[in-house]
């Protein structure tokens, strides 16, 4: 990536370090042209299109296989087939990898491995060490050309159950059923985009083995695919290897992705739904042009200005101005053939929903008629381009360079399509935004409203299915043995340097020159645990107000300055640390630091801001109390730690409604003075700029910051955790098609204690896709979309937490399976030699690719400090892993987990779940969400 042009262009856009009111004369088009991803392409004789991008920053290669088939290509009666087949391709064996791809992928040290399906495509991807590229290409080619002979009725039934539980998991969330109504209203019968990607329960029930075989034959041939290799590889090597492993696969049927028009509603469509939610939501939806349209960039910027930016029209009018909403949003979802434009408002409890809905229409109409200002457009475009630059740092994953190249090739027949997209953003003007909105958003709208109440009837899967039709087994085509993984390069972690500001604050630094971006984390020894027992939620409210106004800037001015700089200033907290973070193009570091320092040092805590933010936090608490995950997360900490323990409160930090309601500006100033101060701070930096330059910039803004006279806050961890003992606490959530099972206990270790051996052992039983509990409940029984158990990374007493969302009618059986699995693991079914080999290989081999991005390096610096690790900690892990034996792994698991006397929290429909739980023979207590 060419960094100089981008950095210079952004630098020229900024005029000084004071609050900026206008950008300079550099055209956005010049800024857009500075992003470059060099690539080469070739096509095999069987039609497979290959794109290669060379990036030598880390010894890893991203391998992405994208197919031009998605849910829009599914005929009536086969909804959900594309996604179901993605599961089959991802989680099941192939003809020549009979154990499945997951195990060798994990053993080779792959990172970012997954598969996804959406309306327009299906993809499989993994980032692997360079020495594992041949093995990964062999497996990817076996998935493409040698899958059907390994697909059995049993494996189909299993993945069908998993997918149906994925559907239940999404549907079970607050507002989780609204998307179905949006699609069914915007698009007429028979339209390719009318049904959801997850499909219907009935169609998934009806899928036969022969249906799925034919679906693969019709859609997954090499001539319907794009293969992208990005990273530590060149085109000549890629051509040789791709020909070797994919060249023999014959062409398949030619899939022609479904065409789709952009429908217009005959008249405004009003729809009202009900859900078990704390507040009403009103939203507007239009079908608009898609990814390839000339209007796409203007519509995206239109949405950002209206409800996407922190300084958006909706934020300024409804949240900060009239205070009738607790949150707002607007966005464009661009697909291959069309897109969806939406705006959404969460109505503040107690407000007139009809009046807020009418006000949304009024604001939208005025915006469509008059359009955005030049400044609004420039801020939105700068933010979008800065986000693009940062998203392109990794080679693969969900957002990296391989994704960008694959999307361009698949949808536009041009891997360089991103250039046209960026040029389009650079050319956006207020006139182009107004014209696009008047062209598309003056058409009839879908007005959707969701009110609190009992949900509409839920359509479940069939209790039983008819016996499947017999299907003849298919011949398996053997091929050459899978190549081995080569010698791995050891991790070379970036050199860590240190400095101190004039006031003694330590700066911990590592250099990364991949992109011209600086990332800074200013950490304070506070966190959620700093809240008092009497006033949980204080820190969260204080943090939420840091960007709502300083003594010299309003919230709107802060947001606008941040957007002009292409910067992102975040506030947040873990249980142990409070964080103010900055990510910005390095050319804009000085004004971005000026803004960040003002936010940290000079919060206003104005009375009207405090009152407004309290309303938003109270709404967030109410949302937690309506969400199955939130209800469970709020319950378990107090049960295992005790309510008086610093960790015995919800980890979200939202606190209790009564405590938050009682807070005022003086409380927040006192908390800020006690905890957000230089003598409790440490600064972590990853940048392309040298440490001396970074230190000087930080010193100019924070070096004269003196600790206040008030005593520094102290956390008290002397209280022991609550007594352990297995029991079940059931939180009733009616109409839940799925239960959330949480199993918690406190381990006899702190975060500073060495947990390398335990974490390795836990991969066998609880952590990761291949863990025993996930393989049993998800892959064998099909009762869950996914589950796991792991030690949480806290500074003091470390908890172990199992999280298992399962279908409601299997709740009790699932807990019994978990109990049995842990009991066996801790007695006579410890870590096997095969598990040990896979775990050790995986952890050693993933190290070189684990720190590909500056964000990952920054995270490592922070965790080293939190857990008092040496600078070379990550480089010492490989040799340590190599020495571990099954006996050592077993001993450490048994030492820390003991008898595995978990406290179980279950969130589900008590009418369905309680009889199952009582049959387990453990004490059962029914509670309401708190």
Description:
With 930 residues, the chain is an alpha+beta fold. Helix content is 41%, strand content 18%. The chain contains 33 helices and 23 strands. The strands form 4 sheets. Strands 1-2-6-3-5-4 form a 6-stranded mixed β-sheet, sandwiched between helices. Strand 1 and strand 2 (49-54) form a beta hairpin. Helix 26 crosses helix 32 (886-897) and helix 29 packs antiparallel against helix 31 (873-883). The radius of gyration is 27 Å and the shape is globular. The two termini are 50 Å apart. The model is unreliable at 1-26 (pLDDT under 50).
Compact summary:
With 930 residues, the chain is of the alpha+beta class. It is built from 33 helices and 23 strands. A hairpin with a 5-residue loop joins strand 1 and strand 2.
The secondary structure category is alpha+beta
Mean pLDDT: 94
Distance between the termini: 50 Å
Estimate the global geometry from the Cα principal axes: globular
Share of helix, binned: 40-55%
Radius of gyration: 27 Å
Number of helices: 33
How many DSSP E strands? 23
Main sheet attributes: strand count, strand direction, barrel closure: 6 strands, mixed
Strand residues, percent? 15-25%
- What spatial order of strands do you see in the largest sheet? 1-2-6-3-5-4
Low-confidence stretches: 1-26
């Amino acid at each position: 990536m060419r960094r100089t042009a981008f950095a210079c262009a952004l630098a020229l856009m900024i005029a000084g370090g004071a609050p900026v009111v206008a950008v300079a004369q550099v055209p956005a088009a010049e800024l857009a042209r500075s992003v470059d991803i060099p690539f080469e392409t070739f096509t095999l004789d069987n039609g497979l299109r290959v794109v290669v991008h060379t990036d030598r920053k880390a010894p890893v290669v991203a391998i992405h296989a994208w197919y031009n088939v998605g849910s829009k290509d599914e005929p009536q009666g086969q909804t959900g087939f594309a996604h179901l087949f993605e599961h089959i391709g991802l989680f099941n064996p192939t003809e020549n990898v009979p154990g499945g791809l997951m195990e060798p992928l994990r053993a080779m040290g792959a990172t970012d491995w997954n598969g996804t399906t959406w309306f327009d495509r299906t993809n499989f991807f993994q980032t692997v060490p360079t020495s594992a590229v041949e093995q990964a290409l062999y497996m990817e080619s076996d998935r493409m050309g040698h899958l059907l002979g390994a697909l059995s009725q049993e494996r189909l039934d299993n993945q069908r159950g998993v997918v149906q539980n994925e559907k239940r998991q999404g549907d079970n969330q607050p507002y989780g059923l609204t998307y179905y109504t949006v699609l069914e209203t915007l698009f007429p019968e028979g339209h390719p985009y009318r049904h959801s990607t997850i499909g219907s329960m009935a169609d998934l029930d009806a899928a036969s083995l022969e249906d799925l075989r034919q679906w693969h034959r019709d859609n997954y041939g090499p001539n319907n695919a794009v293969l992208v290799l990005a990273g530590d590889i060149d085109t000549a090597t890629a051509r040789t290897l791709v020909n070797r492993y994919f060249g023999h696969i014959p062409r398949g049927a030619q899939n022609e992705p479904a065409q789709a028009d952009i429908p217009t509603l005959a008249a405004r469509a009003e729809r009202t739904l009900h859900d078990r939610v704390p507040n009403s939501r009103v939203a507007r939806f239009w079908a608009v042009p898609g990814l390839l349209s000339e209007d796409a960039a203007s519509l995206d910027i239109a949405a950002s200005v209206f409800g996407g930016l922190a300084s958006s029209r909706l934020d300024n009018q409804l949240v900060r101005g009239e205070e009738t909403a607790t949150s707002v949003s607007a966005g464009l979802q661009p697909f291959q053939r069309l897109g969806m434009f939406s705006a959404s408002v969460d109505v503040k409890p107690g407000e007139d929903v009809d009046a807020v809905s009418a006000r949304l229409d009024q604001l939208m109409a005025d915006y469509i008629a008059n359009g955005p200002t030049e400044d609004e457009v420039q801020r939105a475009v700068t933010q979008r381009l800065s986000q693009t630059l940062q998203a392109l740092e990794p080679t693969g994953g969900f957002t990296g360079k391989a994704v960008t190249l694959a999307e361009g090739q698949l949808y536009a027949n041009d891997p360089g399509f991103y250039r046209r997209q960026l040029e389009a953003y650079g050319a956006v003007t207020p006139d182009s935004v107004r014209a696009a909105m008047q062209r598309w958003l003056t058409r009839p709208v879908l007005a959707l409203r969701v009110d609190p109440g009992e949900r509409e009837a839920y359509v479940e899967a069939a209790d039983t299915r008819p016996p499947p039709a017999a299907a003849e087994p298919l011949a398996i085509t053997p091929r050459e043995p899978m190549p081995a993984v080569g010698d791995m390069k050891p991790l070379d972690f970036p050199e860590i340097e240190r400095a101190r500001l004039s006031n003694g604050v330590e700066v911990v630094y590592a250099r990364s020159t991949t992109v011209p971006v600086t990332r800074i984390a200013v950490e304070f020894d506070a966190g959620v645990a700093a809240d008092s027992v009497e006033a949980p939620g204080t820190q969260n409210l204080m943090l939420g107000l840091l960007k709502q106004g300083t003594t010299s800037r309003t919230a709107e001015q802060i947001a606008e300055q941040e957007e002009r700089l292409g910067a992102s200033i975040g506030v947040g907290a873990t249980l142990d640390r409070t964080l103010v973070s900055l990510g910005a193009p390095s050319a804009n570091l000085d004004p971005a630091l000026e803004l960040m320092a003002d936010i940290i040092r000079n919060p206003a805590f104005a009375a009207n801001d405090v009152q407004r933010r309290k309303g938003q936090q109270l709404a967030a608490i109410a949302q937690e109390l309506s969400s199955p995950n939130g209800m469970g997360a709020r319950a378990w900490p107090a049960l295992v730690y005790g309510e008086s323990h610093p960790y015995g409160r919800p980890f979200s930090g939202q606190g209790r409604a009564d405590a938050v309601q009682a807070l005022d500006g003086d409380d927040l100033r006192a908390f800020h003075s006690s905890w957000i101060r230089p003598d409790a701070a440490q600064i972590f930096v990853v940048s392309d700029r040298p440490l001396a330059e970074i230190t000087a910039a930080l010193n100019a803004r924070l070096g004269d910051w003196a600790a206040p006279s008030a005593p520094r806050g102290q956390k008290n961890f002397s209280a022991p955790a609550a007594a352990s003992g297995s029991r079940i606490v059931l939180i009733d959530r009616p109409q839940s098609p799925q239960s959330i099972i949480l199993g918690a206990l406190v381990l006899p270790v702190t975060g500073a204690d060495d947990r390398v051996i335990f974490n390795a052992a836990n991969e066998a039983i609880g952590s990761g896709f291949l863990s025993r509990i996930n393989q049993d409940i998800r892959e064998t029984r099909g009762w869950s979309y996914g589950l796991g158990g792991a030690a949480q990374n806290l500074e003091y007493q470390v908890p172990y937490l199992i999280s298992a969302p399962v279908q409601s009618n299997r709740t009790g059986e699932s807990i019994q399976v978990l109990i049995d699995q842990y009991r066996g693991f801790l007695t006579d079914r410890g870590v096997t030699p095969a598990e040990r080999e896979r775990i050790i290989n995986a952890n050693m081999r993933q190290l070189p690719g684990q720190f590909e991005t500056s964000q990952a390096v920054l995270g490592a610096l922070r965790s080293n400090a939190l857990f008092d690790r040496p600078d070379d900690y990550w480089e010492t892990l490989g040799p340590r892993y190599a020495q571990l034996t099954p006996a050592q792994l077993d001993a450490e698991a048994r030492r820390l987990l003991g008898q595995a006397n978990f406290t179980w929290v279950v969130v589900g429909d008590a009418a369905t779940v309680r009889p199952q739980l009582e049959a387990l023979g453990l004490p059962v207590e029914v509670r309401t969400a708190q």
